[in-house]
Amino acid sequence: MIQIDALCAYAAGATFACVSRVDSRTTTRWTAAYLGLCYVPAATFLLVAYPKWHTMRLLDHAPLGLVILAAVANLVSGIAGASFAHGRGRWVHVATPYLLASVIAIAGWDGTGYRRTLSATGAQALAIGICSAILIAGQLGIIARLRRR
User: Taken in order 53, 63, 38, 6, is the CA torsion positive or negative?
Assistant: First the structure.
């Protein structure tokens, strides 16, 4: 969902930085690769294909400007997460964005966010599941790569 995408991208970058055994430049490159190859395309696909679900029922279609802004915001926030958390080992950079994202997804702006979050059915639910699997596999692959050195 667009309301939590940037928070989750920040947390992904921070996760890579916290588990990394390499320098910050390498971590940032791998974070940018993950965001550019997995996260941003998946989030952009969901925004364009299912704008009503991805915007928590705010929009019926996604304007091009919003799609571009969301993609850039996701990329920048993920790299910021990697930069701010690297070398500090502070898991607060990981936990806080995920906690905020969970509150937004569950509560929404009117206390019924969980209904909108869980409203996906059929092909939409399948697409969301596939995108989630790609994101998880990508994160695990990057974490394994950063831990190897």
Answer: negative
Spatial separation of the C-alpha atoms in residues 106 and 129, rounded to whole Å: 18
Longest dimension (CA), the chain: 46
How many CB atoms sit inside 10 A of residue 61's CB?
9
| pLDDT per residue as tens digits for the range 86-144 | 866 578 889 899 999 989 888 887 888 888 788 888 888 899 899 999 999 999 999 99
Q: What is the pTM of this model?
A: 0.89
CA distances for 103 relative to 111, 114, 128, angstroms: 10, 9, 19
Two structure tokens written together for 124: 């939409």
For residue 90, which amino acid is it? Answer: R
